[in-house]
Write a structure and sequence with these properties.
Layout lengths: L6 H4 L4 H10 L1 H14 L5 E2 L18 E5 L24 H14 L10 H7 L2 E5 L4 E2 L11 H15 L4 E5 L1 H4 L11 E5 L16 H11 L9
Parallel strand pairs: 2-3, 2-5, 5-6
Antiparallel strand pairs: 1-4
Length: 229
């Protein structure tokens, strides 16, 4: 499979995902790659081209948690390839601030002590931070949903569902919750709530206790808990 715009990012992902995309998603990915190559001539695309597939740095069989987002941040310098995450030198977006507030509430922490680098540490512990759509145009939310990324990311969710022995799928918001039909709830744990956006967080995100519930499930299946902070 010959890629142009996505080539640098493809080279960095876990071998099982390289094989999966090459064998099962090659045609779809090639179409997306062609469109991104064309768009990049006149538009700014986020995240950077070498980070688009970054969430796939975890082997499907080793994935312990999936936190599903919808669309990358569209502000300058924000999106880094991991859902909800921004780099340490970037101002914390409102949804991520609320995620930190919930984490602080669950563990009696000072939310101000929690920094953007935490999500990198989650990723290093086999927490996949996956957006349903993996690219966006600068300052235009949901602008590249039409590319067909969701077909590929749906297949990624199904692959984890099949190959991970036990996984926690964290679905925040109606769009993420619509993906639960792809997940075997007898094998895995599905945690749902409203989105951590300021528009909805007070209607059920705060107090969801998802971080502690995740670790309770992992421990109950003899898996190491996530060090959330």
């Amino acid at each position: 499979m010959k890629l142009n715009y996505l080539a640098a990012s493809f080279a960095t992902i876990a071998p099982s995902w390289q094989q999966f995309l090459t064998q099962k998603q090659a045609e779809k990915l090639a179409v997306i790659d062609q469109e991104l190559t064309s768009l990049s001539q006149t538009e700014t695309i986020y995240p950077p081209s070498d980070s688009i597939l970054r969430a796939l740095n975890i082997e499907s069989s080793q994935c312990k948690v999936v936190i599903l987002g919808q669309d990358p941040y569209h502000g300058e310098g924000e999106a880094n390839g991991l859902a909800f995450a921004v780099n340490p030198n970037i101002k914390t977006p409102p949804s991520l601030r609320n995620i930190f507030k919930e984490l602080a509430q669950e563990y009696a922490l000072d939310a101000k002590s929690l920094g953007n680098e935490l999500l990198e540490k989650w990723n290093q512990q086999n927490v996949m931070l996956l957006n349903a759509t993996l690219t966006v145009l600068k300052d235009k939310a949901n602008s590249l949903q039409y590319l067909g990324w969701s077909e590929i990311t749906d297949a990624i969710i199904q692959e984890i569902n099949q190959h991970s022995p036990r996984c926690v799928f964290i679905l925040w918001g109606n769009y993420a919750r619509s993906k639960k039909v792809l997940i075997d709830s007898h094998k895995h744990l599905i945690l749902e709530s409203v989105h951590p956006s300021p528009l909805s967080a007070s209607r059920g995100f705060f107090g969801c206790n998802h971080f502690q519930l995740t670790n309770q499930f992992l421990i109950s299946h003899n898996l190491a808990p996530i060090k959330w902070f």
